[in-house]
Structure prediction request, 274 residues.
Amino acid sequence: MTGIPVVTLSTDIGTKDYLAGAIKGQLLSAVPGIVIVDISHELSGQNYFHAAYICKHAFRHFPKGTIHIVIVNLYEKLPHYVLMSKFNEQYIICPDNGILTMITGKQPDEIVSIQVDASAHFGLLSCSAAIAEAIRKFNDSNSFQKIGTPVLKIMEKYPLRATSGADWLDCQIIFIDHFENVVINLTKEEFEEHRKGRNFKIELKNNEVIKTLSDNYASVQPGDTLAWFNSAGYLEVAVNKGKVAALFGLETYLSPGNNSQIQMSYRTIRIFFE
Prediction:
């Protein structure tokens, strides 16, 4: 890779302290003139579905060769390395904690490990310093394989899929956006495959039912509930100029799982076909 690379940052570190700025400083010091784009620093470290949804649907709009840095739940296990993978003619750098396959949907064919200096007191900035140096080497050498050691086995996690019967689908909330619209783990293709041309109804709380799909938020009157497939292709439930999450008590919540790890559980949205 030669020239000025485009690098994106997607993290769970927030913007209330110096860390996001420090990472950008490390990148600019390693590759002067590098183009840095913030996707989000408000990803959920516990909700990989949310993080993957944001990353996946932002990444596809970037040019070939873009390098995406994803730092989510970095300390799930003490990492002495991070992964760099090639996927869809772009590159993803992230911890080996399952977030990679959550984004890509499969294990990429080309993956290398980037070692973090084991002699240093491990922290976020020692990790990001190793990432910045790897990007410098990659930019100078134009060789993906020379910046790290090939990796054959990584931790794999995959998005939760809707469950189904002959005339129903049970879906889960994967994301509640800034406007409290609710994004559900069902694509338009999956919906139509199960629908088979039949009528449907989406059941919400308080006996609220949606029986039609809208083209956009303005398809209904202010205060009315709607369902539509958003620009990412996922089913979304919203209230025009309102907050569907608060109105119907829809929310994501955490429950403790085995081995002291946090498992994500989701409120179910049921769709009936008739």
Summary: DSSP finds six helices and 17 strands in the chain. The domain at 163-273 is CATH 2.40.30.90 (Elongation Factor Tu (Ef-tu); domain 3).
